[in-house]
Amino acid sequence: MADFSLPGFTELIRRAARPGKTEVLAALAAERLDLEGLAALLSPAAEEFLPQMASRSRRITGQRFGRVIQIYAPLYLSNYCANRCLYCGFSAENRIRRRCLTLEEVDAEAQALIDRGIRHLLLVSGEAPQVLGVDYLAQVARRLAGRFDSLSIEVQPLGDDDYLRLFAAGITSVAVYQETYDPELYRRLHLAGPKMDYAYRLATPGRAAAAGMREVGIGALLGLNDWRAEGLALGAHLAWLRRRFWRTGLTVSFPRIRPASGGFKALTPVSEQNLAQLIFALRLFDHDVGLLLSTREEPRFRNGMLGLGPTRYSAGSCTAPGGYAEEGLGDEQFAVDDHRSVAEVCAAIHEQGLDPVRKDWDRCLQAG
Amino acid sequence: MLTIAGKTFSSRLFTGTGKFSSPQVMREALERSGSEMVTVALRRVDLADPADDIMRVLDRERFFFLPNTAGARNHKEAVRLARLARASGGGDWVKLEVTPDPRTLLPDPVDTLLATEELVKEGFVVLPYINADPILALRLQEAGAAAVMPLAAPIGTNRGLVTRYQIEIIIQQATVPVVVDAGLGAPSHAAQAMEMGADAVLVNTAIAVAGDPVAMADAFRQAVIAGRLAFKAGLGRVSDQAAASSPSSGLEFIR
Question: C-alpha angle with apex A42: A37 to A44, nearest 5 degrees?
Answer without folding.
Answer: 120
